[in-house]
Amino acid sequence: MKPIHKLNGGIGATLCHLCSIIITTGLTQNLYCDKCLSERVKTDSEFKQIKERANNLMRLKNGFKDKQ
């Protein structure tokens, strides 16, 4: 599944797949807003993928300074 990207007046925005609210201005790879993500029933494999992706994003934001 791909993120929903809209132009939003030239800035770009990413929309939640479930409720269609703007997750963030600019383009990201997120599929769901925090509310929908927490309410959505996840399988074990989905949970592992989400957790791994969140960890990778945090590592990128921190410049890979955490443990590797």
Explain what you see.
The chain has about 70 residues and is of the alpha+beta class. The protein has one domain (about 5-60). It is built from two helices and three strands. The chain has helices at about 35-40, 45-60; strands at about 5, 15, 20-25. The chain has a three-stranded antiparallel beta sheet, with no helix packed on it. The termini are far apart.
Keywords:
68 residues, alpha+beta, three-stranded antiparallel beta sheet
Number of domains: 1
| Radius of gyration computed on alpha carbons | 14 Å
Percent in strands = 5-15%
Low-confidence stretches: none
Oligomer: single chain
Average per-residue pLDDT, rounded, comes to 81
Secondary-structure-based class equals alpha+beta
Distance between the termini: 29 Å
Main beta-sheet annotation: 3 strands, antiparallel
Strands, total number: 3
- Which H/E pattern describes the elements? EEEHH
Note the overall shape.
flat
Number of helices: 2
Q: Considering DSSP H and I runs of 4 or more, what fraction of the residues is helical? A: 25-40%
Strand adjacency order, main sheet: 1-2-3
Summary, kept brief:
By secondary structure, the chain is α+β, with helices and mostly antiparallel strands. The protein has helices spanning 34-39, 44-61; strands at 4-6, 13-15, 22-25.
Fold blueprint:
Elements: E1 4-6, E2 13-15, E3 22-25, H1 34-39, H2 44-61
Antiparallel strand pairs: 1-2, 2-3
